[in-house]
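Still learning. Show one?

>
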Amino acid sequence: MNGVSKDDNNAIFRIRRFVFQKFPLARKRSVANSDNLLESGIIDSLGVLELVTFFQQEFSVTAADEDLTPENFQNIECMARFVERSLELQPGSAE
């Protein structure tokens, strides 16, 4: 769809690495960045909370309650876009 920036590629890489480390089914099924992780059961509600914690630690991105939607967490590409949008909203954000 849209062009992918370097930062987005970096976010995708880092999120993908985390998903594969943390969720064994992702490795077992060799999921693609666009595969729906929620519908396939690879990530459940506790997994979303683990991702939120990862986003805070890895990207300094805080997810508010209203951000905890399937649209933001259904696949790796959606998560990377969520992180990128959140970083753009932070004042003085850099890498």
About this structure: Helices lie at 6-22, 24-29, 45-59, 70-73, 76-89. Residues 1-5 have pLDDT under 50 and may be disordered.
